[in-house]
Structure formats: C-alpha cells, structure tokens
C-alpha cells in the first residue's frame, strides 16, 4: 500500500453486507483484481477491509472496501465495520432466493439502526447463474430455486427505498466496475452538495 493512498485527502468507505454465500467476497476480488476467483476465502469472512485507488471522472479517490460475514455468529463483530461508512451494498444472490427477503428482514434494519441516513444499493450477485428454463411469469425458477431477472430485486429495492439497484457477476465481470463507479459518483455528489461536512461519520453509531 502506497503512502500516497494513506495521505490522500479524498477517502471514501463502502461496506458490503448480506447473507452468507451471496458473493460479496468474490465481487470485491473481481473489482480489485479484474478477474474471477472461485474461492476467495477458505474460511468464512468475519470482517475484512481493502484499500485501493479509483479514478472517478479524473478525480483520484482512496476507496476503503469492507467485506463482512453474513453468519449470525458475526452479528456483534460486523458492527465494527460500520462507522464512517459512506455507502452500503446490500447483496443477495439470484441462486439463493431466501437471500432476497433478508434484505428487508435483517440487513436494512441492521444498517438503519447503526448508520441511519447512509445511502445503500441493493446488489444482485451471481447473475451468471441464471438459465432460461422452467421460469414462471414472475421470473422465478421453482425447479432450481433461481430468480431469472431483476423484477423481484428491483421491486425490493423500490420497497426499501434503496438509492439504486444493480446486477453483477464476479465471474463474467458484468456490472462490477459500473457498480463501484456509480456508488463513488453518488458519494462525491453528496459531498459537493454538503461541503461543510468533512466526513459523515456522524451518520454511524456503534453500540
């Protein structure tokens, strides 16, 4: 890690949350390394952070990305990743239908309690897992347990008032760069509109 990154004035923080096995670690790996790795972590993630630089419309941003585990055993440890967050990605996997309702049932209440007013995206991971057989009119594959298209995810994003909805595949690279670029552009726009705040850490509380 370069000393320039550490001293860079424009520093932003994005935290990924979501059920276990929803592809959070693979998504981060694909963004940082521009490649896919089948198994990023041999053991389940608890809390892990990464630091990289990103060019956003000619402006260099030092981006800190926090990966968190979705297991209930990590509930208390996960909160240590939240203070100072500028954006959350609430992730679900199209191959795990139960991970979609968890957005409203678990993840939104959790980040709302600890970081009220911090924006978040709903992110559909593993979209490469979709096939084109045995889907009903809603796009749900009852045989395989997959969600075919973004209708259900977009409805959920609208329902929970997400700042955006994105579909990604760490395996193919689909939507990965666009997701992080859009998030940083939104964060920087908020900063431009609210310049009298140096950082928005007051949004996050830790219990």
UniProtKB/TrEMBL annotation:
One of its GO terms (molecular function) is GTP binding. GO terms for cellular component: membrane. Keywords: GTP-binding, Membrane, Nucleotide-binding. It comes from the Eukaryota. It is found in: Membrane. CDD domains: Rho. Its main location: membrane. GO terms for biological process: ameboidal-type cell migration; cellular process involved in reproduction in multicellular organism; developmental process involved in reproduction; hemocyte migration; melanization defense response; small GTPase-mediated signal transduction. Coiled coil: none annotated. Pfam families: Ras. PROSITE patterns: RAB (PS51419), RHO (PS51420). This is Ras-like GTP-binding protein Rho1. It comes from Dinothrombium tinctorium.
């Amino acid at each position: 890690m370069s000393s320039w990154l550490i001293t860079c004035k424009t520093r932003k923080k994005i935290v990924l949350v979501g059920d276990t096995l929803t592809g959070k670690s693979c998504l981060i790996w694909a963004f940082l390394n521009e490649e896919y790795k089948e198994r990023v972590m041999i053991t389940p993630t608890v809390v892990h952070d990464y630091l990289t630089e990103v060019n956003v419309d000619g402006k260099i941003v030092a981006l800190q990305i926090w990966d968190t585990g979705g297991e209930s055993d990590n509930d208390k440890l996960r909160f240590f990743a939240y203070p100072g967050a500028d954006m959350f990605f609430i992730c679900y996997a199209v191959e795990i239908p139960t991970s979609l309702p968890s957005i409203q049932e678990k993840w939104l209440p959790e980040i709302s309690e600890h970081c009220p007013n911090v924006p978040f995206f709903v992110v559909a991971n593993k979209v490469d897992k979709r096939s084109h057989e045995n889907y009903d009119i809603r796009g749900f594959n009852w045989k395989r347990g997959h969600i075919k298209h973004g209708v259900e995810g977009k409805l959920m994003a609208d329902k929970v008032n997400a700042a955006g909805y994105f579909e990604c595949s760490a395996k193919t690279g689909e939507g990965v760069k666009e997701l992080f670029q859009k998030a940083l552009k939104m964060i920087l726009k908020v900063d431009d509109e609210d310049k009298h705040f140096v950082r928005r850490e007051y949004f996050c509380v830790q219990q």
